[in-house]
Amino acid sequence: MNPNENQVCTICEKPITNPLCIHCLEKEVKEWVSDFNPELMDKIEEITELMPENMSDVRCIKCKRAMSICAHCYIKEILREIQLNNPEVIGDFIRTFDFDLVFSLVKLQERIRELITKKDKLVV
Ligand SMILES: [Zn+2]
Ligand SMILES: [Zn+2]
């Protein structure tokens, strides 16, 4: 049995690398669509409810809830809905919810913090 089996997304079966759960994402996305199409907020709730909730060993970095769907698969579903209703904002949506970018920034900050800690040790 693959030891990582419990850390993959139920939909794409890839390891969950950006651990932000669909409930935390839902909050962000709903806030974002409320500016231009509040009716989409209900639709987004429906999408979240349809997502399978098989608990994995991966926990959301924000709320610590067990995750089963990766951010990419969830956002892809939302993207489809926005494309149907408000195709004019698709570019903005992708820019706002570019998780690879957000996560590489978080990793960069960690690396800088690591380097600073090392430097402190050298000085002492
Ligand atoms: Zn996935
Ligand atoms: Zn969460």
Q: Which structural class do you get from the secondary structure elements?
A: mainly alpha
| Number of β-strand runs | 0
> What portion of residues belong to β-strands?
under 5%
Name the average pLDDT: 83
Helix content: 55-70%
Order of helices and strands: HHHHH
| Small molecules in complex | zinc ion
How many separate helices? 5
Largest sheet geometry: none
As residue ranges, the low-confidence spans are none
Give a verbal description of the structure:
There is one protein chain. The chain is mainly α and 124 residues long. The protein has one domain. Helix content is 56%, strand content 0%. It contains five helices and no strands. Helix 1 (22-33) runs antiparallel to helix 2 (40-50) and helix 2 (40-50) packs antiparallel against helix 3 (71-85). The longest helix has 25 residues, at 99-123. The chain binds zinc ion (2 copies).
Question: What is the secondary structure topology, with strand pairs?
Answer:
Layout: H1 22-33, H2 40-50, H3 71-85, H4 90-96, H5 99-123
The chain binds zinc ion (ZN) (2 copies).
The site of one zinc ion has 7 residues, from helix 3.
Identify the notable features of this structure and list them briefly.
5 helices, globular, 124 residues, binds zinc ion
Brief write-up:
The chain has 124 residues and is mostly helical. It is built from five helices and no strands.
